[in-house]
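User: Reviewer 2 asked us to show a designed sequence for the structure in our supplementary figure. I'm pasting the structure tokens here. Could you produce the per-position amino acids so we can include them in the response letter?
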């Protein structure tokens, strides 16, 4: 099992799909060291669902509240930043007049920040000997893989990507913050991890 996408994947995609979104390369480069693949298998550009069920509801904005707090200031600040960036992405995508570069830049910032946050959060979970750390890592890994799938699909012109991506991010953030992160909250309340 290797780490990162097979060498040259982002460049191959960019050269095969010149009209695709340039953000795909930035995001793939940011995430690929954490994405695992089997070196003996070829890597295929994944297809995304275009099912109407994946379309987001009218209002996806997430508002920070104390119920989202994990009790560690540093992680709460990370979560606030991720939520604020998601809300900016939402506005950029909803604004039909928005420049695609604004959407691309915002998605890149969100993704890069999330990857940095995952590393720091996982480090704190290790320090606290959190017993659910492997499941938590898997959730982070799945998030990163889905973002790569969306970026690859967008780069080849799948038009449902913005709506599917927003719905996925909204659902993932709510589920991850309200359910998964709350599971580790009791383990990170010790002063040494704040």
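Assistant: Here is a per-position design you can include in the supplement:
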């Amino acid at each position: 099992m290797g780490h990162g996408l097979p060498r040259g994947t982002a460049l191959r995609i960019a050269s095969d799909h010149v009209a695709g979104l340039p953000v795909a390369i930035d995001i793939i480069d940011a995430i690929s060291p954490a994405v695992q693949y089997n070196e003996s298998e070829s890597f295929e550009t994944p297809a995304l669902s275009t099912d109407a069920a994946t379309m987001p509801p009218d209002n996806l904005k997430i508002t920070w509240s104390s119920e989202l707090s994990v009790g560690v200031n540093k992680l709460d600040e990370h979560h606030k930043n991720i939520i604020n960036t998601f809300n900016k992405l939402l506005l950029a995508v909803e604004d039909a007049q928005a420049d695609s570069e604004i959407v691309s830049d915002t998605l890149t910032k969100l993704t890069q920040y999330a990857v940095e946050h995952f590393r720091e959060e996982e480090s704190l979970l290790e320090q606290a000997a959190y017993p659910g750390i492997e499941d938590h890592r898997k959730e982070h890994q799945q998030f990163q893989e889905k973002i790569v799938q969306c970026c690859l699909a967008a780069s080849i012109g799948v038009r449902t990507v913005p709506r599917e991506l927003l719905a996925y991010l909204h659902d993932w953030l709510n589920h991850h913050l309200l359910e998964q992160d709350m599971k580790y909250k009791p383990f990170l309340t010790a002063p040494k991890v704040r």
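For the response letter, you might also mention the following. The two ends are 34 Å apart (CA to CA). The chain is about 60% helix and 0% strand.
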